[in-house]
Amino acid sequence: xxxxxxxxxxxxxxxxxxxxxxxxxxxxxxRDGVAADLALKSEPFDLLVLDLGLPRLDGVxxxxxxxxxxxxxxxxxxxxxxTTGDKxxxxxxxxxxxxxxxxxxxxxxxxxxxxxxxxxxHASPRxxxxxLSIDPAARQATLRGAPVELTTREFSLLLTLAExxxxxxxxxxxxxxxxxxRDEPDSNALEVHIHNLRKKLGSERIKxxxxxxxxxxxx
Length: 219
Ligand code: CA
Prior knowledge:
By secondary structure, the chain is of the alpha/beta class. Helices cover about 40% and strands about 20% of the residues. β8 (about 140-145) and β9 form a beta hairpin. The radius of gyration is 18 Å and the shape is elongated. It binds calcium ion. The site of calcium ion has 5 residues, from loops. Calcium ion binds near residues 9 and 51.
């Protein structure tokens, strides 16, 4: 999934960026509220991880503006231990969950999965599409019960397709779920990943809609 991380502390921001990438996410990191507000207006994200104490525009205000525009993406706020007031203001402004610093990376990754799963309308942590089963927490896919070896990017792509089974996703939507801004895709990288997924999972599972994008069959 594509995550926007907004944190002005360089050490914490860097640790979270690296950690979330190791969990297989495409992460963009911004350090102030104005930049975050602009990015949220123009780019699609699956999750916002938002520090509340930010330069230029405070995190609660970023959140109010986001919800004011009717944007529903899940938001996880990061708060300092002694700032209960901030946390309440953040939740009132439309945050879905909060984590108190110091941040435990595994807990952050687990909450991120839970939030995006809920946002996608999946109550169960496992996702099934026909004879394919996907476990986002373990980053493991099984086909008719047998584990399938996938690279990090192949897994991310498969998860995005499976979460949207029965719908067509454009190239831009799929690339956005795979890459962050500092991580520009090769022009044919998406095709290569799709090709590999078809080789591993069967060629009929992922449909090409020429000139539009790709979609996974529902069953
Ligand atoms: Ca801060």
